[in-house]
Design goal:
299 residues; Rossmann fold; 8 strands
C-alpha cells in the first residue's frame, strides 16, 4: 500500500485541482461597490425571471430577439463579446439552446454560469419551466448567483425571491383548482411539444403536432392523424402558440369546427409583450384562462 501512496496522493491532488477549476468559487468575484450586476440571458424565460428577481439592481441583456425561435438561433460575434463581459450568464439548456455551447466557450473567467435545466427534475420534455416546482428551483439558483456577485443587495434579492415563490405557489393552486373539473382533459396543441410538463402535472392529456422544436416540418400524415383525433373525440377547442403563423391552426379549425385558443411557451414572446415586460406569472395565468375556456372548466 505504501508504494502506491504517492500515486494515490497525486490522483487526489489532480482531482482536487480539477474540481476547483469547475467550482463556482472562481466566479464569485463581486462587482464594484455601487455598480449593477451585468446579466446576460439566452432568451425570454431567464430574462423575465432575472428582471423580476433582480429588479433595478441588474443590467439585463437578452441574446435572442423577442420573437425569434430559440432552438435555431445563431449567436453573432457581438453576442460572444457580450457574454465575455457579463458577470452572470443564464440559459436554459443545451437541448433547448444548442448554440449555447458556442457562447459558453467565450465566457470570461469571472462570468458565473447558471444552466436552468440542472436544477430541474428529469423529464422527457426539455421545457422545464412549465413545471412550477422547477421554476422555483431555477429562481433560487439565479438569486444565488446574484448574491455572489452583489452581496450588498442580498436582502433585496431574497425578498424578491420570497415574493416570486409566493406568486408561483398561488399559481399552482389556481391550476389545481381551475383544472380539477373540466368537461375534457384533452389538450390538442397545433404547435411543438412544449407543454408536456404542464399537462402532466394537472392530469391532462397532450397531443402536439410537432416535436420539441419547430425545426422539423409538420408531416401531412401527422396532421391528418391529428384532425382525425379531433373529430373522433369531439374536441371543441385546439391550442396554438401566439408567435406561430395562424394559417395551420386556422386550417385545422376549419376542417374540424374547433375554436382556436392561444398558449404561451414563454420561451419567445411578441414584441408588444416584450416591450411591456410581461412576466412569467402573467403568461402562465393566460395559459390557465385558455385551458379553462378550451376544456370547458367551471370558472
Amino acid at each position: 500500500m505504501k508504494k502506491h501512496l504517492p500515486a494515490v496522493l497525486f490522483l487526489l491532488a489532480a482531482a482536487l485541482l480539477w474540481w476547483l477549476s469547475l467550482s463556482p468559487r472562481r466566479h464569485q468575484v463581486p462587482v464594484a461597490e455601487g455598480e449593477k450586476v451585468r446579466v446576460v440571458v439566452s432568451g425570454y424565460v431567464p430574462y423575465t425571471l432575472v428582471k423580476q428577481l433582480a429588479g433595478d439592481q441588474a443590467e439585463v441583456a437578452m441574446l435572442l430577439p423577442a420573437n425569434a425561435e430559440p432552438h435555431s438561433f445563431e449567436p453573432t460575434p457581438g453576442s460572444l463579446v457580450t457574454v465575455r463581459n457579463a458577470d452572470v450568464f443564464v440559459y436554459v439548456s443545451d437541448q433547448i439552446e444548442p448554440w449555447a455551447k458556442d457562447v459558453l466557450s467565450s465566457a470570461g473567467e469571472k462570468t458565473a454560469v447558471v444552466q436552468a435545466a440542472q436544477y430541474a427534475a428529469p423529464s422527457d420534455d426539455p421545457h422545464v419551466w412549465m413545471d412550477f416546482d422547477n421554476t422555483q428551483k431555477i429562481a433560487r439558483a439565479i438569486v444565488f448567483a446574484l448574491v455572489q456577485k452583489d452581496p450588498s443587495n442580498r436582502a433585496l434579492y431574497e425578498s424578491n425571491l420570497k415574493a416570486f415563490e409566493q406568486e408561483i405557489s398561488e399559481l399552482d393552486q389556481a391550476y389545481k383548482k381551475g383544472l380539477a373539473s373540466c368537461q375534457s382533459r384533452q389538450v390538442v396543441h397545433v404547435g411543438h411539444f412544449a407543454f408536456g410538463n404542464l399537462t402532466k402535472n394537472y392530469d391532462l392529456s397532450l397531443s402536439a403536432l410537432a416535436g420539441s422544436s419547430h425545426d422539423g416540418e409538420n408531416s401531412v400524415k401527422r396532421l391528418t392523424e391529428l384532425i382525425k383525433f379531433i373529430k373522433e373525440n369531439q374536441i371543441q377547442a385546439i391550442f396554438t402558440e401566439e408567435t406561430l403563423s395562424p394559417r395551420l391552426s386556422a386550417a385545422v379549425a376549419e376542417e374540424t369546427g374547433a375554436k382556436v385558443l392561444p398558449l404561451y411557451t414563454v420561451e419567445h414572446v411578441s414584441k408588444d409583450d416584450f416591450d411591456r415586460g410581461v412576466t412569467y406569472g402573467e403568461l402562465m395565468r393566460r395559459n390557465l384562462e385558455s385551458l379553462q375556456r378550451g376544456l370547458g372548466c367551471p370558472a
